[in-house]
Amino acid sequence: MIGLGLRLAVAGGREAAARLVVVAAAVALGTGLLLATLAGINATKTQNLRYAWLNTGIAEYTTTPRAGVDPAWWLIRGDRFRGQELGRIDVAATGPAAPVPAGIPALPGPGEFYASPALHDLLRTVPADELGDRFPGREVGVIGDAALPSPDSLLVVVGQSPETLATQPFAQQVTAVLTTDPAGCMRCIIGLDNTMFTVSLSVIAAALIFPVLIFIGTATRLSAARREQRFAAMRLVGATPRQITVLATVESTVAAVAGTLLGFGVFFAARPGLAEIPFTGATFFPSDLVLTAVNVAAVAVGIPLGAAVAARLALRRVRISPLGVTRRATPKPPRAWRLIPLVAGVAELAYFVGRRPETTDGQTAAYLIGAVLMLAGLVLAGPWLTMRVARLVADRAQRPAALIAGRRLADDPMAAFRAVSGLVVALFVMTAASGAITSFVAERARPAGDSVAATSLTQAFWPERLAEGAEPPTVADIPAGLSAVPGVQAVLTVRENDRQVAQNMADPSGPGLISCADLARAPGFGSCPPGAQVVSVWQDLIGPRDPGVTPAETIWPASTVTDLDSRRLLSVVVQTDGSDAAKERVRTLLATMDPFGEPPASDAEHQASSTLTLVQFQRLADVVILASLPIAGCSLAVSVIAGLTDRKRPFSVLRLTGVRIRMLRSVVGLETAVPLLVVAAVAIGAGLLAASLFLRAQLDYPLHGLGAGYYAMVGGGLVASLGIIAATLPLLRRITGPETARNE
Amino acid sequence: MIEARDVKLSFGETPALRGATLAVAEGEILAVMGPSGSGKSTLLHCLAGILVPDAGEVQFAGQRIDTLDEGARSALRRDRFGFVFQFGQLVPELTAVENVALPLLLAGTKRRAAVAEASAWFDRLDLDGLQQRRSGELSGGQAQRVALARGLVSRPKVLFADEPTGSLDSLTGEHVMDLLVSSAREQGTTVVVVTHEARVAAYADREVIVRDGKVTTAVLT
Amino acid sequence: MSVPLTLLGLLEREPSHGYDLKRDYDAFFGRGKPLPFGQVYATLARLARDGKVVIAVEPGDGPERKRYVITETGASEVNAWLVEPLEPEPHLQTVLFAKVVLALMLNRPAEEYLDTQRRAHLARMRELTEVKRGGNLVDALLADHGLFHLEADLRWIDTTVARLDALAKAVAR
Description:
The complex is a heterotrimer.
Chain A lengths: L1 H10 L1 H39 L20 E10 L2 E10 L18 E4 L1 H9 L12 E5 L11 E6 L2 H5 L5 E3 L19 H27 L3 H13 L4 H36 L16 H23 L2 E4 L2 E4 L12 H12 L8 H37 L3 H12 L1 H31 L8 H4 E5 L27 E9 L2 H5 L8 E4 H5 L13 E4 L20 E2 L9 E8 L3 H12 L11 H44 L1 H9 L4 H39 L8 H28 L9
Parallel strand pairs in A: 2-5, 3-4
Antiparallel strand pairs in A: 1-2, 1-6, 3-5, 7-8, 9-14, 10-11, 10-14, 11-12, 12-13
Chain B lengths: L1 E10 L2 E11 L4 E5 L6 H8 L7 E6 L2 E2 L5 H11 E4 L11 H11 L4 H14 L15 H13 L5 E5 L7 H18 L2 E5 L3 H4 L4 E6 L2 E3 L5
Parallel strand pairs in B: 3-8, 3-9, 6-7, 7-8
Antiparallel strand pairs in B: 1-2, 1-4, 4-5, 9-10
Chain C lengths: L2 H11 L2 E2 H13 L6 H13 L3 E5 L8 E5 L1 H12 L9 H13 L4 H25 L2 H26 L1 H8 L2
Antiparallel strand pairs in C: 1-3, 2-3
């Protein structure tokens, strides 16, 4: 029986072969996605381990004294170059037995540094006054891959003398380099929250694999009628229902095995490109995107097994008797109760507007339940909505195309919706996430590119960061060439406010002071109230702002301080024209005032760090949508083909009677475009509603319009899906040719 | 009304028509007979402008139609011709009455008017009460009569029928033929019916035989 | 079954002796009902009397001295008979069959004869169909009876047409 099944599967005529190919392709796609996700999870873990050594000094066991180990001074800081983070570690060995991180042969001595390959390349191409001057001495080597989270990581290990580092308040003596996963270390600050990424990758995997499963399910329906006729003929000559099930199962399993093998091929072919996608904010080493033996075994066994089960389930829809195929009764029309979970989800989220739960756990539960209810509600309500719209179309139709399409959709809205249900999930999740994140980021007043928040750099000299006994920098220490750097518009100095003002968080006055005469030179940073000589300001002349207020509109509170010039220098703020060259030159130059302090940065750069995770999530959502829209398109295309095959004869007869192929095209087009567009509209609407309710309830933010990028993504995805459907239309001409209508 | 002159047509290497000549007068009911594979359906397709012959010419109402482009021929089929085939012609999603109204809708008639006009045919073809049935809920004879109504509803000049009773038993088949002939006579519609059954051909005014891709006239001197 | 016309037809192939005629008749048309010698000679004598055959006497002894040769009149009678369709009625195959076989033997257009026959049959069927459509149930049923028989004939005609080549080989000498 199994042998016969194999023979039928591979040599069962053109239709069987076509089904085999489509199912195998669908399985290959699904397998490829699954493998990519598994490899992504593995790579995320590996990448995290590569971050581990950067937490040296933070984890307790790296600082405990050890016998036979000469401790090393260790100071880690985050610098930036052209919007990218640049990790800088200043080290100084106190003896020959100092701990050495992986990737470099020894700790660099004073005047030496090791650069990561990406930084090494930059140092060769970028003028020294923009980057190279930040690192004293000469490059003695390139940091090996073992110490790099990503091939693109910018890292530098700078050698210092132990005496210099010993005076720095943030430098630590370390006796070991951290090698454990940062996710497993409580105080680690650099690295990924591994669990979070695993969870989100799993969610994404589910969001990707759901449409693929639907695609596989749809593909098995291809020329199902012909296949069932064959099974009926076998029943007539004495095959038992059991044997038929075996045959069908063998057929699907052959396709699934072929597809799984292909899927591995797809994965390995796509791996280099996959590594380039910064899922975690940084690209992967292709060699990190690996599969464990358990992964491989689970996929290689699980997918064909799943396909076999799916085949058995699909066969349950029809009863194959020796006299032919009895289809299970036409599905009952979906009822309005399907709307209940969706409405309940909206109501639940709406309830919490103005009644925000006190605890974080309570909030999580409230919003998660609402979101899950809405998501499940959408999938449940989809067929009902499809039916309502289809009935509306059919009842109002004056044109035959709309009438036929509307009737078909109304007859089996489940089937029509099934093809696009993956899309609903993806669009809802993506819209809700993008809506919430866009608004959140916007409310956090991500500055415009030409705002001083993005164009000005601040170097602050916090007393607690200064080396013991060292003199704080003064106005005289401001590098002479700073004002002469091309693109620099103003150099402003901020003095220290009274100590108690600076430390009182409730006081809206900032920790700094500036004279109104100075401030007037740079109107972008706001203004003084009338009559004031000196105002209290923040060290970056921007400070925390109310939403919607630009820095230029700020009116700083007047201060009564008169001894401005004798006060300690708190910060230097340099306004540039916003060009990368000017900013990087200023950054390099400013850093010389306090070589071991926090490197200069703009307000926007600080913001970018805090919203980085959110942006990463948005990127993941984009990946989901980009992948699931075309898959949904494929499902649609396959169901178009199935629908065409069902109606081969009536359509070809209509064509013979002079009906334009254009009209048949519009039937097919409507049958697919209506559910696709209705569902997309509903999913987007629901996503925006969910995001809006969440923002109102949790943060009391209004929903901001989504960016052009989002619309481009959704629009592009929809166009791609419609394109895939359009690609099936030439088939219409072929299968409705005159020969089909011949009486045979 | 319709004339084919020395029409030749091959499907790849296989010649289907090898110089068929035939003329049908206005209002005439002509039966085209012949064994399977003789080319009789192909001849019908050429006469109806579905297929374009490789050689020879086809005229309708004194105008050549084999030289028209696909769009013009489609329009001709839609506006001047009606069709009835052996089986499987009804759009399964539509009710019987909507199937009949389909040609009218395609011609731009408003839905309400089209359905009303289509309904009138149900009475004439003994189909009363079946208007709202779907094609799956009709018997073979009923479905064939619905198809006949659809073929005639737009009052075509010529009705082409290809084995219209092919999937029916003789009594049901004759019922369909009876209605076809009376309706055609009533409207003055010219009919070309392809059949291999003598008893169906006997409903026609005249018959021709297609053999080996040629129309046999068989007039002895 | 028309014995005189069949014998005339056989004679048109070639002049024959009475014995040969009987043998050929029995082989193709007798089918278990051989023609008595007496009837053969009586028929031939009648044909000779009517001027449709002439007797060529050969020198020698015995009954087989007489050879029969068809005349112009006889030949045109055979021709007219072959061309003319039979009155469409049941149980005509034997006649029709004889005509077909003879036509093939004589290299006449047997297919055209059959087509003409078909035409006649269909014309009759059309008449019966009209009767059926216009008449009452009894008329209709009677017409159906005729129609089905005619249809059976037509099927035989169709089958024969499809196999004429094979039949021509079978009757070729």
